[in-house]
Structures are given as C-alpha cells and as structure tokens.
C-alpha cells in the first residue's frame, strides 16, 4: 500500500487554508502539512515593504479573532496595520433609532479591528515560510477526490503535470464556489439575496476616530469601517455597500465625484464630505451553507463550509473559530494515536463548531432580513429595536459580544464555549 504523501492536505491557501496550516504547525506536533493553492504565489513584498493601497479589500476582525491570532503568534505582525474599532454606530436612514456600542463599556480596548486582506495575506505568508513542516504548493490545483479505506487520493495538477497525491486527511478550503465540495457530491443550502456588495476605500473630510458605521437603508445595509493608513491617515474607511443589481449598474456608471455624492446622500454628513472613492470591487451576495462539513478523511472549512452576507462582518471570524475547533480535534487525534482523518476526530470538530455556526449564520441572516428588505411595515419594529437596544444595556451587551465574536453571555453554555475559552 502506497504511503501517504502528507498527513493533512489543505486544498486552497486563501485566508482560511493558510491560517489553518499555520495553526496546525504551531499547535499540533508532528503532522506534515501540505497546502495546494491554485493561484500562483504572488511575489509578495516583505511585510516591511508593504504600502496600504486604494484597491485593498478589508476584513473586520472580531475581538475574539485577535485572541486567536495572538495565540498563533501572529497578532504582533497583523496589529501593525490594523485599525482598532473603538465604537460601532448603528443607524437606519430616515428613522430615529440609533445604537452606539463603545469598547470601553465592555472593558476592552477595542470591539474589533480592521485589517486589509493583502496585509493579512503577507503576514500569513511570512509566517508560513518559516514553518518547516508546511509544504506550500502553488500554483497547484486539487482535482477529483477518491476516498480510500483510510485517507483519500486526490489528483494534483502542478506545472502542467498531473499526479496522484495521497493524504490521511483532506481539508477542503477552496472557497465559496468550492469545486471540491461539488465533486464530493456535498449539497449546499443556498439563499441568493439578489444583491451585490460594492467594496471600496473612501476618504472623508472628518476623521473616523475609530468608529465603524453600520447604516441600514431601504435598499440594503451599508458599512464603513475605519482603516489604519491610506493617503490621509485617520480619514480612510472601507466601504461595504449593499446594492440591487440595477443600483450597482448605476453606481458603476458614475465617475468618482458622482459616486461620492451618491454615497453622501445615503450616509449623511457624520464624517463630513466624501472626498475620494477608491477602486471598487463587487460581489454577489449569497448565503451558502454546506449540508455536511465532515466525512471520513474530509473536512470543510471557511467559505467552502459557509459563505455569509458580509453585513455583520462575521464570515472569516466564524471560519477562524471553526479552524481552531479543527485544530483542537487534530490535537486530540495526536494524543490518542488516531489518524487526523478518523471520523471520530472530525466529528468532534463538527460537533464543537455546529452551534456557533448555526447561531452566527442565523444572526447575520436575520440582520439582513430585518434591516435589508424593502418592507415598510418592518420600519417601526426596526426602529424600536434600535432604540430599545440603545436603552437596554443587557441587549446592547449581547449585540456587542456577538459583534466581537465572543458569543452571547447569560445563555446556557454551548459546547463551543469550551474550546473558545482556550483561545480567549
Ligand atoms: C465583500 C465581502 C466583505 C467581507 N468582509 C468580511 C469581514 O469584514 N469580516 C469577516 O470576518 N469576513 C468578511 N468576509 C468574508 C471573508 O472574506 C471570507 O470568509 C474569507 O475570505 C474566506 O476565505 P476562504 O479561505 O474560505 O476562501 P477564499 O478566500 O475564497 O480562498 C479559497 C482559495 O482556494 C483556492 N482554490 C480554489 N479552488 C482550488 C483548487 N481546486 N485547488 C487548490 N486551490 C483552490 C483559491 O485560489 C483561493 O485562494 C467578507 C466577504 C465579502 C465577499
């Protein structure tokens, strides 16, 4: 019988796959880890040569995610270019209710942080290169999967060559349109929101002062997240603007000045005038959840397991908590001399992560449905919700903990809390 080429093969070296590789290397002794990434490894500059750019996309990292990166020894690097979110301001256009959350009310220095994805990628690549147990193959594509009695064979395409590659455990981290999930015949529960997210970095006349703005409009939610650098430090924010397909076409047809004016009309003047509207990217918004996240020798993580609406900035934060649950399961496997692909090992990951997954998906989906739809009857209810939240400290505390990625307090302990404690 052919020996496995690796213990754990991670298919996809995006944010989820790369973080998982690092976490296994740093938390679980002994395993050989291979990451196959379809995209060519960019000639990434060293982190010290990094310059924030106008086309960068950003991720809001919850407070809980900071704790995870601290544990992985990566936070010192990430924090050099991460802007703290000291306050969150939630409002609805044309309505009175406003909710304000402040880090100091929750005895934390920040509710979360905003880091641009390119910076996160550079920090991860820099750390991965220094891990001798990680083999990084790029560009390399993982193809069809053939389950074995113990482990799986996959087809690996690299440098124009195709070879069979055997692993004891395959981690599917190939993103929201996961070809491997489909090849495995794993079903997906999909809800199309019929909207797009337009992403751009913008400059405002007034400084953001560490405030993240969530604004719900009749056309869908909009978020402005404070950025660390930018051409005018302290005045740059990352915009996530939800638009219908027609509205997206309209905005894309506008020049920079008109885009600023359109944004101004919706967001208002809390940050003064919008001065610049950087390069934009747009994404169709879908909630996609895989029907299964584990099978013998196979685990799904990141967007391959669940792709969320970005309104509440929960997708990668949820993914990170899932990765840590998987790492804990691999530690269990090492301690009990089990294969990392053993179903009892992977089922632990699934069980530990499931409640968090369900609650977080439900939380962001209900935010979109409550605030995102063009349903006038919901207006007063939504308004009451925001006003109520501002007045009731316990409700605010609950919302803040969710936003921080810490889970709700006061509720019965979930199994996920057990592994989270380890990381907090
Ligand atoms: C507009 C927007 C804003 C967001 N904002 C936030 C936020 O503020 N906070 C937050 O927590 N989350 C946010 N998210 C979610 C977050 O971006 C995702 O959760 C995260 O990027 C998922 O990473 P991933 O590694 O699972 O997938 P991806 O980033 O899609 O990576 C998948 C990788 O797999 C590779 N690949 C694909 N097929 C193969 C194959 N066959 N073989 C080998 N490699 C393959 C691809 O090249 C890619 O590099 C946002 C998402 C969107 C769309």
TrEMBL record:
Pathway: Cofactor biosynthesis; ubiquinone biosynthesis. The keyword Nucleotidyltransferase does not apply. InterPro entries: FAD-bd, FAD/NAD-bd_sf, UbiH/COQ6, UbiH/COQ6_monooxygenase. PANTHER family: 2-OCTAPRENYL-6-METHOXYPHENOL HYDROXYLASE, UBIQUINONE BIOSYNTHESIS MONOOXYGENASE COQ6, MITOCHONDRIAL. GO terms for molecular function: 2-octaprenyl-6-methoxyphenol hydroxylase activity; FAD binding. It comes from Marinobacter daqiaonensis. Its cofactor is FAD. It holds the Pfam family FAD_binding_3. Keywords: FAD, Flavoprotein, Monooxygenase, Oxidoreductase. This is 2-octaprenyl-6-methoxyphenol hydroxylase. It comes from the Bacteria. GO terms for biological process: ubiquinone biosynthetic process. The lineage of its organism: Bacteria, Pseudomonadati, Pseudomonadota, Gammaproteobacteria, Pseudomonadales. Belongs to the UbiH/COQ6 family. Residues 5-327 form the FAD-binding domain. The keyword Ribosomal protein does not apply. Signal peptide: none annotated.
């Amino acid at each position: 019988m052919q020996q496995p080429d690796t213990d754990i093969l991670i298919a996809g070296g995006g944010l989820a796959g790369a973080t998982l590789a690092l976490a296994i290397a740093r938390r679980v002794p002994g395993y050989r880890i291979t990451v196959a990434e379809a995209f060519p490894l960019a000639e990434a500059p060293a982190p010290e040569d990094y310059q924030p750019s106008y086309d960068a996309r950003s991720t809001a990292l919850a407070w809980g995610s900071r704790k995870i990166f601290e544990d992985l020894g990566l936070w010192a690097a990430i924090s050099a270019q991460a802007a703290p979110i000291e306050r969150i301001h939630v409002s609805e256009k044309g309505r009175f209710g406003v909710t304000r959350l402040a880090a100091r009310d929750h005895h934390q220095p920040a509710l979360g942080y905003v880091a641009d994805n390119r910076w996160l990628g550079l920090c991860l690549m820099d750390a991965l290169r220094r891990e001798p147990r990680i083999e990084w193959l790029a560009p390399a594509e993982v193809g069809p999967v053939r389950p074995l009695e113990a482990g799986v064979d996959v087809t690996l395409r690299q440098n124009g060559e195709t070879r069979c590659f055997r692993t004891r455990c395959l981690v599917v981290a190939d993103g929201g349109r996961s070809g491997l999930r489909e090849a495995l015949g794993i079903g997906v529960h999909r809800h199309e929101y019929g909207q797009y997210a337009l992403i751009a970095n913008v400059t405002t006349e007034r400084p953001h002062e560490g405030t993240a703005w969530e604004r719900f409009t009749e056309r869908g939610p909009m978020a402005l997240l404070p950025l660390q650098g930018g051409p005018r430090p302290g005045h740059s924010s990352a915009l996530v603007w939800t638009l219908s397909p027609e509205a997206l076409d309209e905005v894309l047809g506008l020049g920079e000045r008109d885009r600023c004016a359109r944004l101004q009309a919706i967001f208002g003047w809390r940050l003064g005038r919008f001065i610049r509207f950087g390069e934009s990217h747009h994404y169709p918004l879908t909630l996609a959840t895989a029907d299964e996240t584990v099978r013998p020798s196979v685990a799904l993580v990141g967007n391959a397991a669940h792709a969320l609406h970005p309104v509440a900035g929960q997708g990668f934060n949820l993914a990170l908590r899932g990765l840590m649950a998987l790492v804990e399961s691999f530690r269990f496997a090492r301690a009990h001399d089990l294969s990392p692909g053993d179903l009892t090992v992977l089922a632990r990951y699934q069980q530990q992560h499931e409640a968090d997954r369900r609650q977080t998906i439900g939380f962001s989906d209900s935010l979109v449905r409550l605030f995102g739809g063009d349903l006038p009857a919901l207006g007063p209810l939504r308004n009451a919700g925001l006003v109520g939240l501002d007045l009731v400290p316990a409700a605010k505390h609950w919302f803040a903990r969710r936003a921080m990625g810490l889970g709700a307090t006061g509720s019965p302990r979930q199994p996920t809390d057990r592994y989270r404690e380890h990381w907090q």
